[in-house]
Amino acid sequence: MTSVRVNTCIVGGGPAGLMLGLLLARRGAEVLVLEGHETFDREFRGEVLQPSTVHLLDELGLLEYILAQPHSLLDAGKVRLDGKEVGEFSFRKISPEYPYAIWMPQPIFLDALLRKAQPFPSFDCWMGAKVTKLLEEDGRVVGVSGLRHGKDPFEVRTAVVVGADGRYSAMARMGGFTPEYEHHDFDVIWFTIDQPPGWSSTFYVSLGEVRGLMLPKYPHQIQAGIILPTGEWRRWRQQGVAAVADRVRRFDPIFAGFADGLKDFTPFFPLEGIIRLISYWARDGLLLIGDAAHT
Length: 295
Hints:
The chain has about 300 residues and is α/β, with parallel strands linked by helices. Strand 17 and strand 18 form a beta hairpin. It starts with a strand and ends in a 7-residue tail after the last strand.
C-alpha cells in the first residue's frame, strides 16, 4: 500500500479542486489532489466561462494564461424562436468591465490548471485515484483511503480533506452531511450535433413549444439542452423514439437531420436540475467546496 502524509488532500480534480490546489501550492502549502478519472478527456456539460469567472481569473492573475489556451470569445448571446433569430443580448451591457465569455473545452481548462500547478514542489495530483473511505480518529477526519487505477491501494493522512467531487459527492455522503434545502423541478436533456454551415458559434436561448439552450462545443459542434419539468423525459421515452424525434424537430429546425437519424435514446444525456444546499459545509478535518456543498 502507498501511504503519504500531506497538509491538504483535495478529493476531486475538477475546476474547484484544481483551482484550490493551485492557490494553496502558490502559498507553499503541501497539497495532493486525487482525481478518480484517469484523464480529463470525457463528456462535460459546461464549457463556457461566464464574465464573472473571467473577472475571478483576472483577480487571481490567471486570465492571460487561460487566454493563451485554445478558446473562443463570446461577446453576445442570441434568442431563437421556431428556428429564427428574434433577439440578442450583449455582454458589454451586462458586464462592461469583462464584456465577454470564454468558450473553452473543460479538458483544456483543467489541463491548463494542472500544468500551472505542477511546477510548484508542494503540489501533486494523482489521476485514477478513487477514494473509498474516510479515515477517522476520535470523530475527526484525518485522511482518506482508496484505490489507484482500480487495483493499487493507497492511504493519505492529512490535516484537512477537501471534498471537491461534484454534485453527487462521495465525500458529502461519507462525511454524513445532509442538505438543508433540496429542490428538483426541471431536467436538461443534452445532445450534440455538428454545426451547420454558417452557424454562429455563440450561445442561444431557444423559445417556443420546446425550450432549451444551444451552446458551442469544441471544435465545431452544438451542445443542445432541452429543458423539461421533472419526470417529463420519462414520459417522452415511454411514447417512443418517433415521438421524441418529433419534439426535437420542434425544438429547432436545425435538429431535423439529427431527429431523422434517431434509432434509440443513447445520444441523449439527462442532467437533473437539482438545487441543493448542504446544511453545514465542514466538520472537523473535512470541508466541502463547489458543487459538493451547493449546486
